[in-house]
Amino acid sequence: MIAFLRGRVHDKQPNTVTVDVGGVGYQVHVPLSTFYNLGEEGAEVSLRVYTHVREDALQLYGFATELERQLFERLIAISGIGPRLAIVVLSGMEPRDLVAAVQRADVARLTTIPGIGRKTAERIVLELKDRLARLAAPADAVATSSAADQLRADLLSALLNLGYHRQHAEKAIDAALSASPDASFEQAVRAALRELMR
Predict the structure, then answer these.
(1) Is the pTM of this model over 0.70?
(2) CB 19 within 8 A of CB 47
(3) Domain range holding 47?
(4) In terms of domains, do 72 and 133 share one?
(5) pLDDT tens profile 8-62
(6) What are 72-93's pLDDT values in tens digits?
(7) In this structure, what CATH number is given to the domain that contains residue 156?
(8) Is the N or the C terminus of the chain less surrounded, counting Cβ atoms within 10 Å?
């Protein structure tokens, strides 16, 4: 599974960007919140990625922040909401506004998103209200998170996408970063994987 991409913007359109990673172009679907944070063609870009596998396709969904990615994963866990509709939801409202609307059970606000009817909005509130409680605190911290916090989030995303259990992944990351606090992403991933193999 692809969990992270770093490269250059080859071309971009609303909801889609092609990222050139070492001469290979990855087509990534993105919400508008991420699209507007991308630079122009040729600019460096780093995206957290959710890999969606179907029988007939493999699609990549990219996000500028960990909060966006977590909201996306919670949205697609709701019956009747697939990746495309989840991108529509994230495109129609800023991530922090979405968290706030769900916690307030503001169905009217959610129905202002194009393509989201009352029943879908009610289902989003019902399914996510309790599950977003833990995201509420990090929502304000996303913009001010340190490089170490960002590295930890990227490592956790990579290990979860590889199929490791969250608790085991977090322990392996703690051990890897304790041993080498200044490790790069690649070095830390290798160290964490070594911990998991023990």
Answers:
(1) no
(2) yes
(3) 4-63
(4) yes
(5) 999 998 889 999 999 999 999 999 888 888 888 889 999 999 999 888 888 999 9
(6) 999 999 888 999 999 999 998 8
(7) 1.10.8.10
(8) C
For residue 14, the domain's CATH number is 2.40.50.140
Do residues 122 and 111 lie in contact, with contact meaning Cβ atoms separated by under 8 Å? no
Q: Which amino acid is at 146?
A: S
Residue 73: which of 97, 102, 49, 106 has the closest Cα?
49
Residue corresponding to tokens 């009747």: 80
My answer on whether 91 and 116 are in the same domain is yes
Three-class DSSP labels, 72-118: HHHHHCCCCCCHHHHHHHHHHCCHHHHHHHHHCCCHHHHCCCCCCCH
Max distance between CA atoms of the chain, in angstroms, equals: 51
CA distances to 12, 65, 156 from 153, rounded to whole Å, are 26, 10, 5
